[in-house]
Write a structure and sequence with these properties.
The structure is a homodimer.
Chain A: E1 5-10, H1 14-25, E2 30-36, H2 39-42, H3 46-49, E3 53-57, H4 65-75, E4 80-85, H5 90-99, E5 103-106, H6 111-122, E6 127-128, H7 130-140, H8 150-160, H9 165-172, H10 176-190, H11 195-204
Parallel strand pairs in A: 1-2, 1-3, 3-4, 4-5, 5-6
The structure holds a DNA duplex.
Chain lengths: 208, 208
DNA sequence: AAGCAATCACCCAAAACGGGTGATTTTAAC
DNA sequence: GTTAAAATCACCCGTTTTGGGTGATTGCTT
């Protein structure tokens, strides 16, 4: 029985905290080195705990899980953070991912899923429950009923990357006047009259 | 034994095609209504097949899986496409997601994982193998060693969204001159002298 | 034959941009 | 409690970009 994956659990709900602990302690190569009810409590101890995996509740008193991620990654760059959450709002998911979470599980995940996910993450993989995967994938999907033509979409894409019309023209090997002409049509179709509005509308409607 | 999830398999490798077919046909509520060696072959038949799930190989002769996704979604908007692939380059993953794939499995996925994923996707979820999840998550993670300060990052973020300095100033309730000052510092730190270069560098280095 | 997409042209005034140089205040770290 | 870094604002300059109007040509698709 070799325990080589060191796990820390930070979860304010004591029932859940204990449940996770007993679940994971029973796995052969898992070792729950410590559990905490808040990040503020865990903060100073984490360096000694030196976890490979940190299970982190996103809703907590004091420092929230979201705020805690970058701090944890700062003091323990090699640890993998797995977020536990009840809800899965798009904003929270992306903030967690941006801050450096390696996994994202909703609390309705089965015991098996949790154990599996820790293995995957410890091996350098990513873990997402199906709810989260759905949110992430949806965020990528473009609207297939865009009013913009292929060329217009291409041009708006480049503009959304911060390029000027002149740069777009150079990159596409067309005249500046042509780009201007396309942009005018884009503005009419999207009913806007500026770059930023066009980008905003096109992004919210998933045209780009 | 009620077969209610209709599945179509499009995969040019006949061995794999048959393997998937027999694997999935044995599942109680799955019904493999047809299999094809290429999308061009499948194209006209898909309307009659009316699959709930389409398993699609990404590397195929003729129309590639990537090109096929939007066409499939066009003629069968309600079908869920699950991509099968050997490799998992970031570009392919994102193109598939953008085009409307609901799932993404590498071919080393276990039989159980495949069966599970189809269930999840059929229920409206998303499915990703751990390799893919890792790629997706990595793409989100920002560089924690950015030379930019919090405010500078915030401002560059807004500029990258297409806003002008004036709009940024209004939004952050600070003076235009302050924004200009920050932007100047950003340009120095990133060693650039234009919006588009700053955005480009900051994005490739994951500062924003 | 008609319509749409993509291409280029010229006019105009307003807005935004990039660079320089400098100052003050607030915040954070040692 | 000092000191450094971050955030704030100010005014100079000339150049580039932007948005709007109006119109034309070519090619593809239906």
């Amino acid at each position: 029985m070799n325990k080589n994956i060191r796990i820390v659990i930070i979860e304010d709900d004591s029932v859940l905290r204990m449940a996770y602990k007993s679940l994971l302690s029973d796995v052969d190569d898992y070792s729950v080195v410590n559990t905490y009810a808040s990040f503020d409590e865990a903060k100073k101890e984490l360096i000694n705990d030196n976890p490979d995996i940190t299970l982190l509740d996103i809703e907590m008193p004091g420092t929230t899980g979201l705020e805690a991620i970058p701090i944890i990654k700062k003091i323990l760059p090699q640890t993998h953070v797995i977020i536990l959450t009840v809800f899965d709002s798009e904003e929270k998911v992306f903030n967690a991912l941006i801050n450096g979470a390696s996994g994202f599980l909703t609390k309705n995940s089965s015991s098996i899923k949790i154990i599996e996910s820790i293995h995957e993450v410890a091996q350098g993989g990513g873990a997402m429950s199906m709810n989260i995967a759905r949110v992430v994938m949806r965020s990528f999907q473009k609207n297939l009923d865009s009013p913009l033509t292929k060329r217009e979409t291409e041009i708006l894409d480049l503009i959304a990357e911060g390029q000027t019309k002149t740069q777009v023209a150079d990159q596409l090997f067309i005249d500046l006047e042509t780009v201007r002409s396309h942009v005018k049509n884009i503005y009419i179709k999207l009913d806007v009259n500026s770059k930023s509005d066009a980008i905003k509308i096109a992004k919210t409607k998933k045209f780009i």
